[in-house]
Amino acid sequence: MAHRLLPEWHPQDAVQLTWPSPDSDWAPLLERIEATLEAMVVAIARYQAVLVAVPDAATRSHLAHRFACLGVEAARLRLVVAPADDTWTRDHGPLGVAHDGTPLLLDYVFTGWGGKFEAVRDNTLTRRLVDVGAFACPVEARDLVLEGGAIDTDGEGTLLTTEACLLNPNRNPGLDRTALEARLKTELGVSRVLWLANGHLEGDDTDSHVDTLVRFCDPATLAYVRCDDPGDPHYPALAALETELHALRRADGEPYRLVALPWPRPCHDPVDGHRLPATYANFLIINGAVLVPTYGDAADSRALAALGEAFPGRDIIPIDCLSVIRQHGSLHCLTMQLPRGSLADTPQP
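== Agmatine deiminase ==
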């Protein structure tokens, strides 16, 4: 039986996070990003476990005490010493697939979004987690450069991605569209790939990851970023993206139900003024809930309402991500879901 890439709403054991070290790019914002990550852990732990890679034993001890004080059940928390370069677990974490009905994690190559940033420790983090027994299922290495934020799936054989990222020569220069699509179909068990030609966010280092633009909410529903300001420099590309989405068809030939997410006011870095990639598409689906990034903007409430309609029966939990976008990512970028049956039961060293 072939592999099947699991959708984000597949039952999960845990969400994986990577805690920042004091000497990382987060240094000027360390207290703020730690507060955001604390809020995420507390929220997620109400529903399932959290696996956190931490830079050293001292941080592990501190966080164990801190989360106990915050009421997080010890059984819902795994703190594992595994140093990393940065915190973007979506892109250096493993991808969950099903193989013969059992979970399997695939460890793809991460190069810091095409060599933009140091990524040696990030690229080996999954292997270090394997070495300390963090996972209960097999983990297989792959030689393809592929980030989790670059793809999304309906769990029924359709993969959604962007040309700007996966076809960028800074990722897999030896593979053209046909060869890359063949690899994705073989390794992830998808039967078709939907390529988006439009859409980008200023301040995005990922070359237009799909998880900043368009997301599956269920096999028939896509939530996407809509820019309603013709004076905004994003307007032409996002309008073209919206047109593309209206033309997309499901495998059965039916159109997708489209859920437009609002456009927040421009967010700018307070130091040098460059624009930051604030997006409501960077939400995280967990067991029984959806965590949604917010930015202290009037559009926050409309985004929460739109996603509440897209995810009936799930709790909608806002997470302040103003600090996260200072490093050009958001909530989904910080996380990787681990499918049911993949997390080891025993506390990790």
